[in-house]
Automatic annotation (TrEMBL):
Organism taxonomic ancestry: Bacteria, Pseudomonadati, Pseudomonadota, Gammaproteobacteria, Orbales
Catalytic activity: GTP + H2O = GDP + phosphate + H(+)
Domain CobW/HypB/UreG nucleotide-binding span(s) in chain numbering: 8-189
InterPro entries reported in the protein's UniProt record: CobW-likC_sf, CobW-like_C, CobW/HypB/UreG_nucleotide-bd, P-loop_NTPase, Zinc-reg_GTPase_activator
N-terminal signal peptide: none
Keyword Hydrolase annotated: yes
Domain CobW C-terminal: 257-340
Superkingdom, natural source: Bacteria
Protein name, as recorded: GTP-binding protein
Record CDD domains: CobW-like (cd03112)
Record function comment: Zinc chaperone that directly transfers zinc cofactor to target proteins, thereby activating them. Zinc is transferred from the CXCC motif in the GTPase domain to the zinc binding site in target proteins in a process requiring GTP hydrolysis.
Family in the record: Belongs to the SIMIBI class G3E GTPase family. ZNG1 subfamily.
Keywords from the UniProt entry: Chaperone, Hydrolase, Nucleotide-binding
Species name: Frischella japonica
Length: 344
């Protein structure tokens, strides 16, 4: 990788003790050809994880201990990223990717927004994905007591389910169903003690304004007693007695045929203005009348990006899909407004 390339950045979040450090350690133990920079943010004055992470020559760790990235040290994160960029440009340091491990108590929103709002960062860094570790054994308690736990799941592009060795299959399935109810866009991957191939959580390119809009239809497991595989066997949970919980974050899917550009533009503008604070992540691939290319939209709260993607082919029907992971929205009302943007 050359310095002119955008630096890939992965945000690793997940509640306290959910296995973030274990996952990174597994990566470092099995990574021999990449130099990785890690920004660690620990809540409180002492960075425990910095000591737990296995140092070797392929890793540099920046510790941020002035509080939690999500609030008081957002500025510190920006400064750290600028400095890294400068040092890299000057040839003082070299690394191939950056991982930001957030404190288990952090809401990832402000961290994510940093990558959209700061010009230098936007131009030099390629935000790759938000990865959330979920502790299968304790997530129910976390969700009950800490609002941020649901938020971390809601923001995820990919969820890594940990400690499944400590629960019964039925309990694991109900955790999966609960995660899916919060975020049906993120694929769920099971990892025993962080043992997961790096291809499963790095270089996912989820923030590229590309045409891929995946909605998880089940979940996927990696069985580490077998070889690392890149293809998974899809597993669909058949839960007949799924209990409903009030996690207050939901996945909404808006679907329609070809849309009128002006109308959909003002729908989205109004939606963000009114509900942006509640909308954690959203992504859409929209079919616009008289436009041969797909219109791609994606955003985090009130920060939104639009771009034209690839052209529609003659086989795929021109359909618009817009997924929103959000705190509760008046979905029926919004759906009618969305449908009203269909082109005449
Ligand atoms: N049984 C079991 N234990 C695990 C697994 N993954 C992690 N652990 C253990 O869970 C504990 C917490 O893991 P960490 O990796 O430190 O979690 P963390 O998310 O970095 O924790 P904080 O930095 O405190 O938020 C450690 O004792 C790990 O060994 C797993 O899949 N199964």
């Amino acid at each position: 990788m050359t310095i002119t390339n955008h630096m890939p950045v992965t945000i690793l979040t997940g509640f306290l003790g959910s296995g973030k450090t274990t996952l990174i350690n597994h990566l470092l133990n099995h990574n021999h050809n990449e130099k990785i920079m890690i920004i660690e943010n620990e809540f409180g004055p002492i960075n425990i994880d910095g000591g737990l992470l296995k140092h070797d020559t392929n890793i540099d760790i920046i510790e941020m201990t002035n509080g939690c990235i999500c609030c008081s040290v957002q500025g510190e994160l920006i400064t750290a990223l600028h400095q890294l960029h400068q040092k890299r440009l000057a040839g003082e340091i070299n690394f191939d990717r950056l991982i930001i491990e957030t404190t288990g108590l952090a809401d990832p929103a402000p961290i994510l927004q940093t990558f959209f709002i700061d010009d230098v960062i936007r131009e030099t860094i390629q935000l790759d994905a938000v990865i959330t570790t979920v502790d299968c054994e304790h997530i129910s308690t976390h969700l009950k007591n800490h609002r941020v736990a649901a938020s971390q799941i809601g923001f995820a592009d990919r969820i890594i389910l940990t400690k499944t060795d400590r629960v019964k299959t039925a309990d694991k399935l109900s955790v999966i169903a609960r995660i899916n109810a919060i975020n049906n866009k993120a694929m769920i991957i099971e990892a025993n003690h962080g043992q997961i191939a790096k291809t499963q959580w790095l270089d996912l390119h989820t923030f590229d304004l590309n045409d891929e809009l995946t909605i998880s239809k089940g979940f996927f497991t990696v069985d580490m007693s077998k070889q690392l595989v890149t293809k998974f066997t899809p597993f669909t949970s058949k839960l007949h007695s799924y209990q409903s919980y009030d996690d207050n974050i939901f996945s909404y899917l808006f679907e329609a045929t070809e849309l009128d550009l002006k109308k959909i533009g003002s729908f989205i503008e109004k939606l963000i203005e009114q509900y942006g604070n509640d909308m954690l992540r959203y992504k859409g691939v929209l079919a616009i009348k008289n436009q041969s290319q797909k219109l791609i939209i994606q955003g985090v709260h009130k920060v939104v990006g639009f771009d034209y993607g690839s052209a529609w082919d003659n086989i795929t029907p021109k359909e618009s899909k817009f997924v929103v992971i959000s705190r509760k929205l008046p979905f029926e009302e919004l759906k009618q407004q969305f449908l009203a943007t269909i082109a005449d």
